Amino acid sequence: MKRVVVTGMGAVTPIGNNLDEFWSSIRNGVCGVDKVTLFDASDLKTQIAGEVKNFDPTEYIDKREARKMDRFTQFAVIAADEAIKNSDLDMKKEDPWRVGVITGSGIGGISTFADQHKTLLEKGPGRISPFFIPMMIGNMAAAQIAIRHKMQGVNENVVTACASSSNAIGTAFRHIQYGDNDVIIAGGCEATVERIAFAGFCNMKAMSTRNDDPKHASRPFDAERDGFVLSEGAAFIVLEELEHAKARNAHIICEMVGYGATDDAYHITSPIPGGLGGAKAMEFAIRDAGITPEDVTYINAHGTSTKYNDQFETEAIKQTFGSAARSVAVSSTKSMTGHMLGAAGGVEAIVCAKAIEDGFIPATINYEIPDPDCDLDIVPNVGREREVKYAMSNSLGFGGHNASIVFKKYSD
């Protein structure tokens, strides 16, 4: 099996529109949640979100091309561009059939869908945009990245709800391990801060209603958490076969060493009580990495700030890690970013890679009242300077999808 390393990263998030801004915000405990501005949310129970701020796609993408892309694809193209630039990958020197793109997006172009449905009702079918379908479909972010950079290898979009981009990264990892591709741009993108999506989540009673205090609304593992905060953005990493990276003198950020994926086979929205599915995904990822639970320094938890997710993920970590569950540092950076749905795993993979690179474990901010059901070391409120040898990211999605990925401090 080939070894796989991370050589580039890029992000567009509610706490920074590029990698440096994002990581600075993570280190400083900045929260990107605020009142919704993208639409009128005054008649909805939840009126807060993690929006990408000061976003003008035409600063990065030709105006005519940007108009043919849904917001989720715009995010993806810009984040992928940064990851590729960050990696110093020169496609003129690459075999394009060996360079691929795998995205994760749980919902895709919902804003385009809603806008065009309104047009249909108000103006009739003749006024529907000819770009409606290619703007809406979830695979289009992967396609647009490939077209933009002439990448002709594997090209896919994974749809596993909130586990989408972790599964995308895991799938990319396997393709490179098996020798099918040399380089894959992998991660996720989502843009669901949109009225109809908001209404759906509100009526599920899944989102926080702390509208008068948005900066403290996302509070994973806290006893007074009242739901997740919907957010948007994109994050991509460049995964590369080790010898290929060394041959071009690429900067190696860390190594990817493990991937585990399962399904609860229990319920369409609720995680299985006790967290067995998530526990098995972590177990398989640790075994794939060839390590023990004691070797893991840091877990970036799925940690959505919902009652059952946080409780059952805690139980899952205890099942997998045993006595080591008391010593591993666990935090949820969704306390800062909100929940980016299909893009969450991508941005949290970057957190793990940067934690290894910088020797810094991010905090779970907004932690005020301990929940006895979530009795782990959740790195409350203030991050820690600490060497990170192995970092794990967990992603759990509606439908019972579970994905865990493991990164390692690189050594030749």
Please describe what this structure looks like.
With 412 residues, the protein is of the alpha/beta class. It has 13 helices and 14 strands. Strands 5-4-6-7-1-8-14-13-9-10 form a ten-stranded mixed β-sheet, sandwiched between helices. A two-stranded antiparallel sheet has the order 2-3. Strands 11-12 form a two-stranded antiparallel ribbon. Helix 10 (276-289) crosses helix 11 (307-321). It is globular. The two termini are 16 Å apart.
Keywords:
single chain, alpha/beta, Peroxisomal Thiolase, Chain A, domain 1, ten-stranded mixed beta sheet, two-stranded antiparallel ribbon, 13 helices, 14 strands
Topology, please?
Blueprint lengths: L3 E9 L6 H10 L5 E2 L12 E2 L13 H4 L4 H17 L11 E6 L5 H14 L8 H5 L3 H10 L5 E4 L5 H14 L5 E8 L4 H9 L29 E9 H6 L6 E10 L12 H14 L8 E3 L6 H15 L7 E3 L2 H4 L6 H15 L1 E2 L22 E2 L4 E8 L3 E8 L4
Parallel strand pairs: 4-5, 4-6, 9-10, 9-13
Antiparallel strand pairs: 1-7, 1-8, 2-3, 6-7, 8-14, 11-12, 13-14
